[in-house]
Automatic annotation (TrEMBL):
Segments traversing the membrane: 20-38
Keyword terms, alphabetized: Membrane, Transmembrane, Transmembrane helix
SUPFAM superfamilies tied to this protein: vWA-like
Organism per entry: Hirschia baltica (strain ATCC 49814 / DSM 5838 / IFAM 1418)
Name recorded for this polypeptide: Putative Flp pilus-assembly TadG-like N-terminal domain-containing protein
Domain Putative Flp pilus-assembly TadG-like N-terminal: 19-64
InterPro entries named among the record's database cross-references: Tad_N, vWFA_dom_sf
């Protein structure tokens, strides 16, 4: 600036005839530089105001879009969000000292859930008119991610073993899982983009299930407040699942007539629990596991689970529900959860994995239709999420009775004087498991194999260890961490943290962010 002042002074003191035109030219350049500097600073300030206003407008539109009911038509949701963005942009620019004109913003709703706002405004130039440009249009760009528009396919693999009756865990689980379902439905980006399956498991699963419902985002029933649920088998099966049975035992598939079922299960009938069929899972005599696949078992038949004793359906969990788009149906299912039986986590994982499969046999078995059937693994059109929760380590069934992997009986022996001399144990396991009896270590190996296979299919697998002691239950905690594949996907929490954890998982599922 000092050099400009010095040069100007020299021009003013000059006396020869050629100075005047040169001075006029120089003065023009000086005025151009000054004008350009002033207009540039105004444009720079205007750009900052425009960018801030655009950011606010897009975030306001994103919030409105998210909180809009999913029952509102998509075109209406977008129109309402567009209006809010325009109103926010204009209000923010009017509050500025700049004279903005022709303020515009256009929203683009992308398939990945991102909302992009392209904004523009016009400001007048103070000196630009001297050079033939009286105004300039300024652009701005902002974006907000309101969720992921890909379909969410979620399966809740929930431990309903007997220990879940302790410390109100089942009540806490029911509340947290239902709140989770409400969150994902309330914040669904589009209609028919959320479906949730439920696999209640203990030492087996129950296949006597309802057909998964089509889209219904209306509020579901109130949360059932009992620790024991409102009943374990309140379903009307869409097909006769006794056609998928053969008599207990693993020698051959056999036939299972209605009269035989009545004889075995009495007046209560077969409630829906099964044991493993031939070669469904394979373990060598040394404990090596053959990797899980979603190839359907031969004949799609399983032995009916018949427990020795007074109740042939003892410890049978509530039926599964394949991935449903009906919020009321999912909440009704979660309200049925009832604690009983032992812990075989791999069973829940395996059946949850099958719910994601596109295999036609599984689609028919679970009752999917063209709207509800899952996308293929690795599809870019959907996200598959599995949440597996348990409160304990895997426990083989060593007492008399049935688990998924077989049954054991005890025979008492007496001498000729009637004195008890001991007992012998007789166990039977399905063909494919080349051992006399399945152990806790075998269950752990089966579980970790299932976890690895599930993750390899681009299923986002989360594990929740509930009320496990860091010292006494360290093995179970480590297994669940290994199952999830990373610390960020493995939770080790107390019962009173369950609702908060499920809400965090809902946010991860929806990918809500700014």
């Amino acid at each position: 600036m000092r050099s400009i002042q010095k040069t100007l002074k020299q021009f003013l003191n000059a006396t020869n005839a050629g100075v005047a035109p040169m001075f006029a030219l120089f003065l023009t350049v000086i005025l151009f530089i000054i004008g350009f500097t002033i207009d540039f600073r105004r444009m720079d300030s205007a750009k900052m105001h425009l960018q801030a206003a655009t950011d606010s407008a897009v975030l306001a539109a994103a919030r409105a879009y998210l909180t809009s009911s999913v029952q509102v038509k998509e075109t209406k949701r977008q129109e309402d969000s567009q209006k809010i963005a325009s109103d926010y942009l204009t209000a923010n620019l009017l509050s500025s000292s700049n004279n903005f004109e022709n303020n515009q913003i256009q929203l683009v709703f992308k398939e990945d859930g991102e909302i992009v706002g392209n904004a523009s405004t016009k400001i007048k130039l103070i000196f630009g008119g001297l050079f033939g440009k009286s105004d300039v249009v300024l652009p701005a760009l902002a974006a907000a991610t309101v969720g992921d528009s890909r379909k969410l396919e979620i399966v809740l693999v929930l431990d309903t073993s007997g220990s879940m009756s302790s410390q109100n865990r089942m009540k806490q689980l029911r509340t947290a899982s239902i709140n989770f379902v409400n969150s994902v439905f309330d914040n669904a980006v589009y209609e028919r983009t959320v479906q949730v399956g439920v696999v209640p498991w203990n030492a087996t699963v129950n296949i006597n299930m309802d057909r998964p419902g089509t889209w219904d985002a209306s509020p579901g029933p109130a949360i059932h407040n009992s620790n024991y649920g409102n009943g374990t088998n309140q379903v009307t099966s869409f097909q006769d699942f006794t056609e998928n049975l053969y008599p207990p035992g693993f020698s051959d598939f056999g036939s299972y007539s209605d009269s035989d079922i009545d004889d075995d299960f009495g007046s209560s009938g077969w409630l829906g629990c099964i044991t493993a069929t031939k070669d469904e899972r394979k373990i060598s005599s040394s404990g090596n596991v053959t990797p899980l696949t979603d190839v359907p078992p031969s004949k799609m038949k399983w032995p009916a689970r018949k427990v020795a004793g007074w109740d042939p359906n003892s410890d049978c969990p509530s039926p599964m529900l394949a991935m449903s788009q009906s919020r009321p149906q999912i909440i009704k299912k979660l309200n049925q959860l009832n604690p009983s039986g032992n812990t075989h986590a791999d069973i829940g994982l395996m059946w949850g994995y099958r719910m994601f499969s596109q295999q036609a046999n599984w689609n028919n078995f679970f009752g999917y239709n063209s709207d509800t059937k899952p996308d293929s693994f690795h599809s870019t059109k959907s996200r598959k999420i599995m949440i597996m929760l348990t409160d304990g380590e895997n426990t083989a069934t060593n007492s008399e009775g049935y688990s998924y992997y077989g049954w054991c009986t005890y025979t008492n022996h007496y001498n000729k004087w009637g004195r008890y001399t001991g007992s012998t144990k007789d166990c039977e396991v399905p063909k494919g498991i080349n051992k006399d009896e399945i152990s806790n270590n075998d269950l752990n190996s089966l579980m970790l194999d299932a976890c690895e296979v599930i993750r390899s299919k681009d299923v986002e697998l989360f594990t929740i260890a509930l009320d496990l002691h860091s010292y006494y239950d360290s093995t179970a905690i480590a297994l669940l961490r290994e199952c999830a594949g990373s610390d960020s996907h493995a939770y080790n929490i107390k019962g009173n943290e369950l609702d908060e954890t499920f809400q965090e998982l809902a946010s991860k599922a929806l990918r809500l962010s700014k």
